[in-house]
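Example record

Each entry pairs one chain with its bound ligand, NAP.
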Amino acid sequence: MRRLPRAPHLPHRVPAQGRWLVQGPVRVPEAEQRRVEVGQLDACVGRVGLVGELGVERLVRFVGFGGLVRLGLVRLGRLVGLVGLVRLVRLGWFVRLVRLVGLVRLVRLVLLGLVVVVGGLVVGGIVVLARLVDVRREGCMSLGQIIDGKAVAARVRAEVATAAAALRGRGIAPTLAVVLVGDDQASASYVRSKTKAAREAHVDVRDHKLPATTTQAELIALVAELSRDPIVDGILVQLPLPRGLDEEAVLAAIDPAKDVDGLLPTSLGQLAQGKPTFIPCTPKGCLRLLREANTPIEGARAVVLGRSKLVGKPMALLLANANATVTMCHSRTRDLAGEVRRADIVIAAIGKPELVRGDWIAEGATVIDVGTNRVEGRAHLVGDVEFAAAVARARAITPVPGGVGPMTIAGLLENTVEAAARRRG
Ligand code: NAP
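Structure tokens for the complex follow.
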């Protein structure tokens, strides 16, 4: 093989008893001022350290191309891999390489590289395909699974309809009494949705619409009468009540056996004891969504944001009963972001639009967003979680709207049919 002329102004090596001694007319950095055995260099070529220290040009000048070739094709390949073929070509060494290594060996080297790249792509493709199959099987999207609350609620309502039809077959017509006081538009709309869903699930509804001028005594008298009525299985007093009416006093008139909203102290107490009778509808729906999304709950770190009687507290109790390790956060929690970051399960029930930032969500966490917030300039309701960013990190997440909302009515119907079965079944 023809030796390439060496530039006299560069450091070069001379053979010395089987070793390479570095010499040169110009000042040579300390790192190069050492004897380098072929064996040592052989071991070092694979290390980025030496290449980085000396620089590839110097390294090649150091041992010459012949030295490199003596190190063998594999190590040369490693070197090419390290410094990049492109760089070698740019340096104008390609032709020299061809001359020294031989075209056939170089082509073999390139082909080997291609095989590695193509192989990598094929393996990557298989992994991606497998993930897509998983995703399809679980009904997931390519990011986090978006939990379809409407679909799950439809399933729950179908189950309720089957159970209600079975009771009817035995002469028991599950009946829900709904009490609406005043003319609040949002409350009236909720009541309409609940009534429609109940009828579709074979649950009879008795509507009691009272004027805003209804007194506390009149309202309590009606609720007490419904509590005594043997035909009525469940009583729902639509909240909030108009100003001047004491919610707790009115709710206290509900027979605990008909507390289908699960808001009475007895219902919450039983839940706290791990022997629930009526679980408040929204947390009940959240638990079902967690299960539908195949979320491991036992032993999981669950963070509940909010401690209201309606959502936060019963949700925390439900999760604790299901053997999760529960942290309940509220407006005085010192490090909300830190608590969320540690959570496998996040239940957000705060009522603050997108307060929970997407990057707080741990990779692979399941997020249930209870929040329903109206934001000026946004056509749809907005949740408590920054959905667009959270969906990329979460394993599964509920959207707003279309997540928890539909589950609340489904939970109410479930409780009503359970009440009918318990009282009269
Ligand atoms: P709530 O009674 O107002 O309770 C809000 C909770 O959030 C409180 O415990 C409060 O803490 C906590 N909180 C407020 N600001 C906070 C902050 N900056 N950091 C941490 N915690 C904070 O509300 P809710 O009745 O539980 O409802 C919560 C949300 O869920 C609302 O958006 C509501 O509309 C929605 N919701 C939806 C459904 C549905 O069917 N989709 C049903 C019920 C509720 P403190 O206790 O310290 O004040």
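The first strand starts at residue 12 and ends at 16.
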